[in-house]
Amino acid sequence: MKSIKTENKRASYSADCFLSGALITDSKNTIIYVNSYFEEHLYWKSDELVGQNINKILTKSSRIFFQSYLIPTLLHEKTSEEMQLIIFNGQGIKIPMTINAQINEEGKVFWSLYNSSKQDQLYDELIKTREKLEEQAEELKSLASTDELTNLLNRREMNYRSTLLLEQSLRSKQSVALLVIDIDNFKLINDTFGHLEGDRVLKELGQALKSFGRQTDLISRYGGEEFLIMLPDTDKKGALLFCNRLHAIIADILVDNKPVTVSIGMTISNTINTFIDLFTQADNAVYQAKSLGKNRTQLFGDDNTI
Ligand SMILES: Nc1nc2c(ncn2[C@@H]2O[C@H](COP(=O)(O)OP(=O)(O)OP(=O)(O)O)[C@@H](O)[C@H]2O)c(=O)[nH]1
User: Fold this and answer.
1) What's the CA-to-centroid distance between 195 and ligand 1, angstroms?
2) What is the tens place of the pLDDT at every residue in 29-75?
3) Is 107 helix (H, G, I), strand (E, B) or coil?
4) Nearest ligand 1 atom, CA 182
5) What is the C-alpha separation between 296 and 293, in angstroms, rounded?
6) Where are the domains of the chain?
C-alpha cells in the first residue's frame, strides 16, 4: 500500500521539474501544452505556442520529416524514439533536438524533447578526428612507399607494384619494358663535390624522371644511385625511344658545368617472365653498358648499344 506521504510527494512534482521539453499536440497537430523548459531554455512563452500548429516551431525540412515520416510512424507503431528534428527557439535560432513521442487513442501526441546540440558537436568532432586519422594513415602509407630524397617509389613499393603490373600485362598479353638506370661515376661526384652535391643530382634526376614519365609508368629509386622504371604496354621500339629521350633530358643536369650521364640496362618481357627474371636481365644489361664505356643504353640479349 502506498502511504499518503508518498502520494503527496508525487503530486508536488510536474513536467516542469525535468531538464527536457514536454509538449502535447492534439489530433490536428495543435499544441495544447508545453512545460516550463520551453520558456526557460527555448525562450518561448507558453501562450505564444499553445493553440498554434506545431509547424510554428519546426524548420522546413523538419516539417517534411514530421509529415512524411514521424506522424505515419506514430500512427503505425504508436511510439517513435530518438528522432532528430530541428526546431526554432523563441529567438529564431535553429536547435537540433532528439525527440521521443507517443500517441494515445484520441490522437494526442506526447513529446519529450532533448537538446542534442552537444551531441551534434560530438559527432562533428568525431568526424573531424576520423578524417584527421585517415589523412595521417594516408601520409604514413605514402611515407612507407616513397623514397625520402627523391619522392619516387622506394624499392619495396616498386617490387610490389611491378609484380602486380607484370601479372596484369601477362594476362592481357601486353609487353612491359624494365629499365635499370645507373648514374655514371657518381662516386666521383660525391668524392669531388661532396655528398650534398650528390644528393642534389639524385633529387634532380628523380624530378626529371617523374616529369618525363607517364602517369602509369612505375618510377623508383631502387638503390643508392640506381633507378628502376617499368613501362607498361611498351615494346622494344617504344622503350628505345624512351631511353634516347631520357639520355637527352638527363644531360640537362649539370655538375661543374658538365652534363650528368647515365647507363641504362633495358629488357622487354615475354609471356613467361617473372619480375626477378626481368630485373636480372636489365641489371646484366646495365653492367654491360658500363663495361662498354657508360653513357648508353644496352638492350638485354642484344649485342648493340645505343
Ligand atoms: N650523395 C649520395 N650518394 C649516395 C647515396 N646513395 C649511394 N651513394 C653513393 O653512390 C656511389 C656509388 O658508387 P659506385 O657504385 O662506385 O658507382 P659509380 O661511381 O657511379 O660508378 P659507375 O657505376 O661505374 O659509373 C657511392 O659513392 C655511394 O656512397 C645517396 O643517397 N646520396
Assistant:
1) 10
2) 999 999 999 999 999 999 999 999 999 999 999 999 999 999 999 99
3) coil
4) 23
5) 8
6) 4-116, 141-299
